Amino acid sequence: MNYTDTFTIYTRWFNSYINHFLETHPDLYENIELKADHSRKVHDEIIGIAKNLKLNEEGTFLAETIGLFHDIGRFKQYVKYKTFSDSKSQNHAELGVEVLKENNLLKNLAEEQKEIIYKSILNHNRAEIEPDINPKVIFFSKLIRDADKLDIWRLITEYYLIKEEKENKTIELELPDTDEITDEVYHAIMNRKVILKESMKTLNDFKLLQIAWLFDLNFEYSVQRLYEKKYLEKILKTLPQNNKVNQVKTLVDSYFKESSIKNQLLIIDTL
Fold first, then answer.
1. Residue whose C-alpha is closest to residue 25's, from 103, 92, 81
2. pLDDT tens digits for 29-87?
3. R_g of the chain computed on alpha carbons
4. Taking residues 223-245, what's their average pLDDT?
5. pTM for the complete prediction?
6. What is the distance between the alpha carbons of residues 125 and 86, in angstroms, rounded to a whole number?
7. How far apart are CA 214 and CA 226, in angstroms?
């Protein structure tokens, strides 16, 4: 199989699929284009991780296919429900796998390759990766979860800079923008746990959920890229300046320092 040609076909299909929504729903252009741009950038992020890990040609192809298609369900979701909140509509990962199967897009791939792509897409937005007997499913699920987070951090930090001039409640999941931080959310992040969406009550809770993704990163490359881009620093600046937020700042700083020390030790071990 020529993986380059196959992915070119996927890219053309993706662009055509998006253009259909843009043409038939011009009133929804902003958020459709937002998710299309996100999908392309997640593809770029996952390629960065793949190169860092020196994946072979097949591995790179699987990674970039998962990256491009991980949110393909978002477009049907938004057109039908006018929201990106899965709890208020439909699980967009499950919807995405349905879209790929309905269009028979992966017809030329081996069964294992299809399984890896479908299951990785299903895992990308779960609180935790579902156990699987195939280690490749777990590996590629970790890849897409990291790449997705890296670009969401880019997207939301850019949005927070312009929020006062151009508010987009869809990005905020329609959560109220108050000073409150829910105790359940605060205690979860202080215990270095991923925050469940069900526990969010305010936009500040959502911001802490985004910060807590730090503890769910799987590859050192991802942690380093997050640190270099200063995404969490930018989110922290948008939160109210109080004792809870100060403790979160300290926690984030210490985590990055620990990661840096681990990375230095790994480098020394390989010399």
1. 81
2. 999 999 999 999 999 999 999 999 999 999 999 999 999 999 999 999 999 999 998 98
3. 19
4. 94
5. 0.92
6. 10
7. 8
The two tokens of residue 106 are 């992966």
Tell me yes or no: is domain 3-147 CATH 3.30.70: no
Q: What is the DSSP secondary structure assignment for residue 131, as one 8-state letter?
A: P
**Within a 13 Å sphere around the CA of 188, how many CA atoms are in the beta-carbon half?**
24
Are 121 and 97 in contact by the 8 Å Cβ rule? The answer is yes
Query: How far apart are alpha carbons 46 and 60 in whole angstroms?
Result: 9
Residue type at position 41: K
- Name the burial class of residue 224, with classes exposed (0-12), middle (13-18) and buried (19+) by CB atoms within 10 angstroms of its CB: middle
Which residue, among 226, 233, 62, 57, has the nearest Cα to 146 in the 3D structure?
A: 226
In the chain, CATH 1.10.3210 sits at: 3-147
In eight-state DSSP terms, residue 197 is: G
CB-based burial of residue 160 (10 Å sphere; 0-12 exposed, 13-18 middle, 19+ buried)? Answer: middle
- Which tokens go with 4? 């380059």
**Count of other CB atoms within 10 angstroms of residue 207:** 24
Using an 8 Å Cβ cutoff, are 69 and 95 in contact? no
